[in-house]
Amino acid sequence: MHISSAFDGGNIIVKSVASADDIRLDIRKDTNSDFFQWFYFRLTGAQGKACQMVIENASGAAFTGGWENYRACASYDRETWFRVDTAFENEKLIISHTPELDSVYYAYFAPYSMERHADLIAEVGTHPDASIKVLGETIEGQAMDCVSIGQGERIFWIIARQHPGETMAEWWMEGFLARLLDDDDPVSRVLRSKARFHIIPNMNPDGSCRGNLRTNAAGSNLNREWNKASIQSSPEVYYTIEAMNAAKPDLCLDVHGDEALPYNFIAASQGIPGYTKKQAKDLSTFLEAYETASPDFQTAIGYPISKPGKANLSMCTNWTAQEYDCLSMTLEMPFKDNANLPDNEFGWSPDRSARLGGAALDAMLAVVDQL
Questions:
Q1: Residue 95 in contact with residue 84, Cβ under 8 Å?
Q2: Are 1 and 43 in contact (CB under 8 A)?
Q3: Same domain, yes or no, for 98 and 119?
Q4: Angle, nearest 10°, between helix axes 350-368 and 186-194?
Q5: Would you call 332 a catalytic residue per the annotation?
Q6: What's the 3-state SS for the chain?
Q7: Per-residue pLDDT tens listing for the chain (371 residues)
Q8: Cα–Cα distance measured from residue 37 to residue 58, given in angstroms and rounded to the nearest whole number
Q9: Do residues 153 and 197 touch, judged by C-beta distance below 8 A?
Q10: 102 and 121, same domain (yes or no)
Q11: Domain closes at, from 107, 132, 147
């Protein structure tokens, strides 16, 4: 048997593979950081063997609540990812699976590679209404791709994957972009006439390549850098803010994944010092329309709302809402499953993320005229 993670987004430390029923592993920490939870590795030579893979340092992960009622993702072809038996016991994460083929991949969630990102940007760039701009470079010299679409007066900024291990965010982007560029979709056509979209499908290319959960190559958590961004520690945020200053948002949506909560929900900016009645009204319109557009979205369960004036202004949603007086929101999707509509075979998945991305356009159409 052999375990490897020396590929795009890979992350695992092999401690022992002497026996299929007692494989011992650790998750590597994020670059220059103590965060860890993302794992992604390949197992070969275990076809037909009842494997038990024990991640021994799981109790030290960033969000141990993420292991409760969690089931790991597995794939033979890296296209279809299904769930396998997983348990969090005695402070260890135990993945139990009998591979049907010689080669199988396991991951915290279905990975989204930088190669697929390049394919996405290339495909989107062929549409006559889309333009591609590089806002700047990451610490390791990767391009910060920004897609601009539409000719309307309202300015919409949509960003994803500030936390690179939250790969469902870029799967969401696939569905969002596919529908937005569908010339036969009346919702998309109207939105493109009323709004100008600036879209960053991957805010953290370096962390994505390195197999990090939350940080970039400098060890910075990008969603804690918005009030102090610098070229040295967080160029990804620095260059995004530069671009936003040139095209100030009327709406900003920051797409994420949540390790613990098995629901799709929005966290907004109610706690900022300058929160207005208009922002509250726009938020209500968006939430109602999103919930109508997709049964996978709900508003009953989410994060506690910050007290007035107590919002963390280092976070994208709070900082942009305060700085630009706009409707700004964070969308959270589960690593686990949607408890309201569970899927035992796949859990929350790339396909469901993409469908939720497409449904967001209905919510945007509902609110665009009142922004």
A1: yes
A2: yes
A3: no
A4: 50
A5: yes
A6: CEEECCCCCCECEEEECCCHHHEEEECCCCCCCCCCCCCEEEEECCCCCCEEEEECCHHHCCCHHHHCCCCCEEECCCCCCEECEEEEECCEEEEEECCCCCEEEEECCCCCCHHHHHHHHHHHCCCCCEEEEEEEECCCCCEEEEEEECCCCEEEEEEECCCCCCCHHHHHHHHHHHHHCCCCCHHHHHHHHHEEEEEECCCCHHHHHHCCCCECCCCCEHHHCCCCCCCCCCHHHHHHHHHHHHCCCCEEEEEEEECCCCCCEEECCCCCCCCCHHHHHHHHHHHHHHHHHCCCCCCCCCCCCCCCCCCCCCCHHHHHHHHHCCEEEEEEEECCCCCCCCCCCCCCCHHHHHHHHHHHHHHHHHHHCCC
A7: 999 999 999 999 999 999 999 999 999 999 999 999 999 999 999 999 999 999 999 999 999 999 999 999 999 999 999 999 999 999 999 999 999 999 999 999 999 999 999 999 999 999 999 999 999 999 999 999 999 999 999 999 999 999 999 999 999 999 999 999 999 999 999 999 999 999 999 999 999 999 999 999 999 999 999 999 999 999 999 999 999 999 999 999 999 999 999 999 999 999 999 999 999 999 999 999 999 999 999 999 999 999 999 999 999 999 999 999 999 999 999 999 999 999 999 999 999 999 999 999 999 999 999 99
A8: 8
A9: no
A10: no
A11: 107
Token pair belonging to 38: 């993302």
Record the tokens describing residue 207, joined without a space: 């962390």
Token pair of 39 as six digits:
């794992």
pTM above 0.85, yes or no: yes
Structure-token pair, residue 211: 């197999």
Q: Which of these is catalytic: 166, 259, 323, 332?
A: 332
311 shares a domain with 169: yes
Which structural domain, as residue segments, surrounds residue 142? 114-368
